[in-house]
Design goal:
Layout lengths: L12 H12 L4 H9 L5 H10 L11 E9 L2 E8 L3 H15 L5 E7 L1 E8 L4 H17 L2 H9 L3 E9 L7 E9 L6 H21 L5 H4 L2 E7 L6 E10 L11 H17 L1 H21 L4 H12 L9 E6 L2 E9 L13 H9 L5 H24 L3 H16 L4 H10 L7 H10 L1
Antiparallel strand pairs: 1-2, 3-8, 4-6, 4-7, 5-6, 8-10, 9-10
Bound molecules: (R)-mevalonate.
Length: 436
């Protein structure tokens, strides 16, 4: 076991690699050469990557794909996607093509409030504190004027501050609940900076007040932080068509397909095991766009899954209805994202993705991301209730299995025809390579 290392971050890249290599990679030249191969030859680009994180010794590449023909609110988009899962983009492209001819996706942003909290402990009269917050709400908002100036000029800022009494759930625990509109930025840093100023001023104002006993003034600020639960920052997308326009799919009639599809959605609404997988299919598309556009996919994932549980049980995020012969699917999710700030004007690939999407406002990007999630959901469930997921999935995965077993270019070319009607797995690929 290596000794604990102090000051690792101060070492040069070469020294960091030597230390890692000596202690964890058996001094392997091969691993060092991989780290070097994945460095960018363009020094400017590499220096951008180096500055994004700490202890950077190389880059980690993922495929950057495009899904064309994506009709959202009557506009044709070309979607940039970053994902390592072989079948995701192919499935999405089929789905978007399918819905293109049926009117495309309709999407709207329903609300756009983000929140943050000052979490604190207070031992005193709750009503007096509530009155105090109502009386001082404007002063607290004004205390952030210097940093909210630009956001206010763009139409955003802090809309209100209220006291939330949580002392029944946790002794002495209260929150200042602060609502924000961050316009086109995700706004995490903005929100956190505002909250820290508000907490400081709250403490000072309370201390200067003559309406509280000395013991009541001794509040303890526990922390000031935005919430990634954003149930007031909601977008909804849908697609619909006549059942007959679904066309016969994989050997079943459009009516049989519609009913089976709806059954699959209904199962995801009542069964947690299925709901999680159903929602994972939605996130396949959502995460891929979040990453390509430089958004915080961890924040969105956390918020969306909490939203899926907001009725007391984890449920499906999407729903399917069949009313008067109209087949409709709908996805409603919280989505706190940005199209300015963060790495949007730093990372060249993120800039390119946003340019591909015609530099959207955050509302437009919310519409795009939600529609991609719904399209991905449709593609997955369509396969599940017809041919099964493995057919398309393994077709895309075949190339990975071939490369893993060192197939030649010629063998790779022959493999597609050979496996058209055969099972694809490690053994069958091995057998094929032995024969060819
Ligand atoms: C695989 O990445 C996603 C699916 O499991 C989603 C689903 O089951 O709906 C196919």
């Amino acid at each position: 076991m290596p000794d604990k290392i102090i000051g690792f971050s101060k070492l040069s890249r070469d020294k960091k690699i030597s230390w890692v290599s000596k202690n964890f990679l058996d001094n392997s030249i091969e691993f060092e050469s991989i780290l070097n191969k994945y460095l960018n030859d363009d020094k400017n680009i590499q220096s951008i990557h180096n500055s994004l994180s700490e202890n950077v010794i190389s880059n980690f590449h993922l495929p950057y794909s495009i899904s064309p023909n994506f009709l959202i609110n009557n506009k044709n988009y070309c979607i940039p996607l970053v994902t390592e899962e072989s079948s995701v983009v192919a499935a999405l492209s089929n789905s978007s093509k399918f819905w293109y001819d049926r009117g495309g996706f309709k999407s709207k942003v329903l609300s756009k409030i983000k929140t943050g909290h000052v979490h604190f402990k207070y031992d005193g009269n709750a009503e007096s504190l509530e009155k105090f917050i109502i009386e001082n709400e404007h002063r607290l908002i004004e205390s952030t004027d210097r940093i909210t100036k630009k956001m206010r000029e763009r139409g955003g800022g802090i809309s209100n501050i209220k006291l939330v009494n949580k002392s029944k759930e946790l002794k002495s625990y209260y929150q200042l609940h602060v609502d924000f509109n961050t316009i086109d930025s995700m706004g995490a840093n903005f929100i956190n900076s505002c909250l820290e100023i508000i907490s400081k001023n709250f403490k000072e104002l309370l201390n200067d007040s003559s309406k509280f006993k000395e013991s009541e003034k001794r509040i303890e600020i526990i922390m000031s932080i935005l919430s990634n639960y954003t149930p007031e920052c909601i977008v909804e997308s849908s697609v619909e068509c006549k059942i007959d326009d679904l066309s016969d799919i994989d050997g079943i009639t459009s009516k049989e397909f519609a009913l089976k599809f709806k059954n699959a959605f209904d199962i995801a609404n009542i069964d947690i095991s299925r709901a999680v997988t159903h929602n994972k299919g939605i996130m396949n598309g959502i995460d891929a766009v979040l990453i390509s556009t430089g958004n915080d996919f961890r924040a969105v994932e956390a918020g969306i899954h909490a939203f899926a549980s907001s009725k007391g049980m984890y449920k499906s995020l999407s729903e399917c209805t069949i009313i008067d012969n109209i087949f409709k699917i709908k996805l409603k999710i919280p989505l706190s994202i940005g199209t300015i700030g963060g790495i949007t004007d730093i990372h060249p690939m993120v800039k390119l993705s946003l340019k591909l999407l015609e530099n959207p406002t955050s509302d437009k990007l919310m519409n795009i991301i939600c529609s991609v999630g719904l399209a991905q959901n449709f593609a997955a469930v369509k396969s599940l209730v017809t041919s099964g997921i493995q057919k398309g999935h393994m077709k895309m995965h075949l190339i990975n299995l071939l490369i893993k077993q060192n197939a030649t270019k010629d063998q790779i070319n022959k493999a597609e025809a050979y496996f058209k009607d055969r099972d694809i797995n490690n053994q069958s690929v091995k057998d094929f390579l032995d024969l060819n």
